[in-house]
Amino acid sequence: MATSIGMMDSAYFVGRSEILAWINSTLHLNLSKVEEACSGAVHCQLMDAVHPGMVPMHKVNFDAKNEYEMIQNYKVLQDVFNKLKITKHIEVSKLVKGRPLDNLEFMQWMKRYCDSVNGGGLHNYNPVERREASKGGKEAGKKSAPQQSSTKGSTAAPRPSSSHARRNNNDVSSSMNPSNQSAKTSSKPSTSVAAYDEQITELKLSVDSLEKERDFYFAKLRDIEILCQTPEIEDSPIVAAIKRILYDTDADASVVTEAQAMVSLHPKEALALSPIAEVSEEKSSSETQKRKIILNIDVDAAGITTLSPRQRLSDASDVHCSGSPLMTY
């Protein structure tokens, strides 16, 4: 079911925080951004969690930094998709770039698929043990350990000042206050940096979505331009009006009125572009021709029946005298 979900499905409206919480709780990781899973190793282990033993974890590289190493992980993932007959297309060239929006969309699909298999339940799956067979798997879940040790070291640093402050009570007060102030100032930048990172990620997502929307509408305008360059309709007034709007660079509202005026000056040529008008004109002309033929036949028949026998003989003699091949005696 999850292999054929559309872009408007509820799966693509799951937030980044929910996706990160699901990945970290399922695989016992400490990811802070969705794009940190761009190497493909996380995707491989998620498939291994849903289908135990299906993924060769010894081929998965959690320490992949270069694109060629990431591509190897996605090859493993594609092989698993082929075995399970999953028709989902993996856009490897976009995912390995680490763009937030592309990685978020693919991870949203992964969550939907994993939830659709056995209700998303994992049967006694040990992610840490399964990662030990992979390259860099042991260190994958320990990325937050150096940060904790650094915070412990920073709290242990002010201790020598207390032993040195026993000599003078005034020195104690002067030495303790700066330490408290430094602790407060160190906590403030950490929270502000996290907030800035979140804002940067949101801005990247919005930029990616705007770029996709821009490319979509540009492709539409390009198709219209190619159509207007068709030789059969290139010189028509309605095409000229479309080009007037298409190539305008001033974003002036009067351009639309000018284009409408160009079409209104040649209404017949504008109607000539409509296939419905052409078909209706052809039908009307053929019907009038049929009516003329039927009327002529009826008039001729009526004229023949009203002629007297003497008039018919005179007409026949006229034909014979004129040498017509229709009269043979």
UniProtKB/TrEMBL annotation:
* Any Pfam family the entry gives: CH
Biological process terms from the Gene Ontology for this record are:
cell division; thigmotropism
**Domain called EB1 C-terminal: residue spans:** 185-255
Keywords on record: Cell cycle, Cell division, Cytoplasm, Cytoskeleton, Microtubule, Mitosis
Among CDD domains, the record links this protein to: CH_SF
- Provide ranges: composition bias, Polar residues: 170-193
Keyword hit for Cell division: yes
| Primary localization | cytoplasm
Q: Where is this region: Disordered?
A: 121-194
Listed SUPFAM superfamilies? Calponin-homology domain, CH-domain (SSF47576), EB1 dimerisation domain-like (SSF140612)
What domain of life?
A: Eukaryota
From start to end residue, where is composition biased (Basic and acidic residues)? 128-142
Gene Ontology MF, one? microtubule binding
InterPro entries according to UniProt: CH_dom, CH_dom_sf, EB1_C, EB1_C_sf, MAPRE
* Annotated Gene Ontology cellular component terms: microtubule; phragmoplast; spindle
Q: Indicate where this protein resides in the cell.
A: Cytoplasm, Cytoskeleton, Phragmoplast; Cytoplasm, Cytoskeleton, Spindle
Q: Which residues form the Calponin-homology (CH) domain?
A: 13-115
Which protein family is named in the record? Belongs to the MAPRE family.
| Entry protein name | Microtubule-associated protein RP/EB family member 1C-like
Which organism was this protein described from?
Durio zibethinus
